[in-house]
């Protein structure tokens, strides 16, 4: 039995990056032998085990065969006679297909180390095409490693295009797609992820509304702006979708199975963007429309949410309209001074209380507004 460190850990160690997860491959063992050594089996279908102390994953060397489309139809073949090279061969990129033995020797049958030095994201073999998720993974590695000079190789880009043309991406389940998008949004250059997907035509399948020349550039500009600082996933999604109308933004976020906070902030951003454009064309700002915006954003109960939205809008709005955010911020600040408690102490309750709060807020917003909107 021989154990090897494989995949991302070997890659990151050679790149001098922090190693987060360590995955191992075991050659020459049976599941029974692993269980006898105290390893715990993870799941029923894959021959993967957890180390009893480190909790790191140890997989028996395996090959995979595919029979169906998309992410379905894999059959795993694992036996003590499957070699390390066979296991590495079914992996996605050459830089992810290196192993290190317990003695410290690098096992690199597909020239991953050369590609690492050449900054090349290159597929290991035609078996890359058996898993369309690898298109998204490759785009994600580009988003992570482009700042180090990495590029997707021409051959790999051609293969990815061919996979898209053959309809492979159509069959990916939304959960897996979302998982990759979510991770990509937090890589060094999230915009590169979408550029690679556009270059291989996968974006037109996954988020067709963005795959339009002009629209994509504008979306990526907003994304670059928001991802320049330490922002959350929902803000990044909202910036990306800020070029879409509200209904489309909500629909697309829902079909991607993005979490609720992403869906709502994306919808809210698109809603605000349209409203702000209209309000900015008016000579005088109507206080009731500003109050309505603050109500829609649930500002009174969740001011931090409004703050997150404002940060997105700073990136999503064109320069002249950005000035409106200051006006809205001032209006919000002045209206927070209204105290429902004080009004209740004056004996107001129910609908009358609601009306009084609204009137008071409107008055304060009105007072905070500039004389003209120019
Ligand atoms: N792998 C693959 N195809 C996939 C998923 C994984 O070939 N669809 C292989 C790659 O060799 C990868 C390894 O399995 O290196 C481990 O996968 P994972 O832990 O998901 O990725 P990492 O390469 O470790 O990447 P990250 O740093 O993003 O975790």
UniProtKB/TrEMBL annotation:
A single active site specifically recognizes both ATP and CTP and is responsible for their addition. ATP binds at residues 8, 11, 91, 137, 140. This is CCA-adding enzyme. InterPro entries: CCA_bact (IPR012006), NT_sf (IPR043519), PolA_pol_head_dom (IPR002646), PolyA_RNA-bd (IPR032828), tRNA_CCA-adding_enzyme (IPR050124). It is an enzyme of class 2 (transferase). GO terms for molecular function: transferase activity. Its EC number is 2.7.7.72. It comes from Marinobacter koreensis. Its cofactor is Mg(2+). CDD domains: NT_ClassII-CCAase. The keyword Metal-binding applies. CTP binds at residues 8, 11, 91, 137, 140. Catalyzes the addition and repair of the essential 3'-terminal CCA sequence in tRNAs without using a nucleic acid template. Adds these three nucleotides in the order of C, C, and A to the tRNA nucleotide-73, using CTP and ATP as substrates and producing inorganic pyrophosphate. tRNA 3'-terminal CCA addition is required both for tRNA processing and repair. Also involved in tRNA surveillance by mediating tandem CCA addition to generate a CCACCA at the 3' terminus of unstable tRNAs. While stable tRNAs receive only 3'-terminal CCA, unstable tRNAs are marked with CCACCA and rapidly degraded. The lineage of its organism: Bacteria, Pseudomonadati, Pseudomonadota, Gammaproteobacteria, Pseudomonadales. Belongs to the tRNA nucleotidyltransferase/poly(A) polymerase family. Bacterial CCA-adding enzyme type 2 subfamily.
